[in-house]
Amino acid sequence: TSTSVANASFEDGWFHGKIRCWNVTPAAGSRLTVTGHAHSGNWAAYAAAASPTRGQLELTTDRTDGCQIPVNAKRAYTLDLWARSTAGAQPVVYTYSGLWRRWYVGDVIPPATTLLEQKVALPTIPDGVTRVSVGMVFPGSGAVVMDDVTLTPIDSTLFQPSFRTESGLITTNSPSGTRKSRRPSSRRIGR
Residue 191 and residue 188: Cα distance in Å, rounded? Predict the structure, then answer.
């Protein structure tokens, strides 16, 4: 099951003059609104600079109490979202363990004219981290449309061995618990 990303499909409207639970930074000189070009539902987020700039912009979830995304340390997650950009974009994740830090920046997703699904297997969440903020970072000369953002724990039981191990070695024991050894046979090959 997915971890709760508040207003993940941008259908929850506005709160205090902005899209609920989402920000674009730096706020000065940037725009954050909705567009009807959504993957699902009626709306998707649209973020851009008010006028092209040299720096980078970020469209990320709020870091306020009602909008932070709870996570478990030492667990891996998949970030899944639908996005398109005019100048390329990268998934970005911030972690919280006393203060917010930029923790992960993914590969550049090339510009596109339609929304494409982006799935990113994130590294294991570091010790002490209890919350994250997710989104996209993109050049200030471009724009991003994003929709349907989810964060899903990766089931670690898929990767646990089902073999019996002793001292770190995989063994094949006979039913009586004693190992049968076989001597190598010597056969002559050829003439």
Answer: 8
Query: Quick one: which of 142, 153, 6, 19 has its CA closest to 83?
Result: 142
- pTM of the predicted model, to two decimals? 0.79
How many other C-beta atoms can be found within 10 angstroms of the C-beta atom of residue 66? 9
Bridge-partner residues for 165, per DSSP? 170
Residue 3 is classified by DSSP as B
Tokens representing residue 85 in the block: 């950009």
Q: pLDDT tens, 5-62?
A: 999 999 998 887 789 999 999 888 889 999 999 999 999 999 999 887 788 999 999 9
> Burial, 31: exposed, middle or buried (Cβ in 10 Å; 0-12, 13-18, 19+)?
middle
In order of 31, 98, 138, 188, the CA distances from 130 in angstroms are 30, 9, 26, 65
Q: Which amino acid is at 188?
A: R
Q: Pull the structure tokens for residue 94.
A: 């911030």
Q: How far is CA 118 from CA 1, 121, 173, 176, in A?
A: 18, 10, 46, 52
Measure the CA–CA gap between 9 and 146, rounded to whole angstroms: 9
Phi, psi of 159 (to 5 degrees): -110, 10
